[in-house]
Predict the structure of LTXXQ domain protein.
Amino acid sequence: MRKTLIALMFATALPTVAMAMPEGPGPMGGPESRMMGGPGHGEHGPRGKGGPFSQLDLSKEQREQIRKLMGDQWHARKDLTQKYLDKLPAADQKAMQDEIAAGKQKTQADIRAVLKPDQQKKYDEIVKKQAERRAEWKEFQAWKAQQAQKAQ
């Protein structure tokens, strides 16, 4: 049951995320990444010549509107998935969170192993900054919840 829910969650989220990718240069968009030959960035990738929206000759405003719609859909799917995950027993929820965290750590270690020493230092800084931002966000959410309780 748990593996089915996880597979369902990933299967529903991945196409939405792929279509909502930002345009322009950077690690996930633009000509630099297409030249790297990464998956989804080739001639027939989501935003390449064979992508679903590339044949429509969309304006910048239309692309932004579609990106917003796809983002809204992603959030709705995430909320729906969370609704059903909340129905799982606490032990299964904890096991799933632990499994996701272990997978994330393994992926980060695998990525780090591919990098050169100077890139590893920069990568470690990026990961540290992301962790700090997540901690700040959690702190803000706790403060926000506390303010909402005081208002009631």
Summary: The helical segments are 2-19, 31-35, 60-85, 90-114, 117-151.
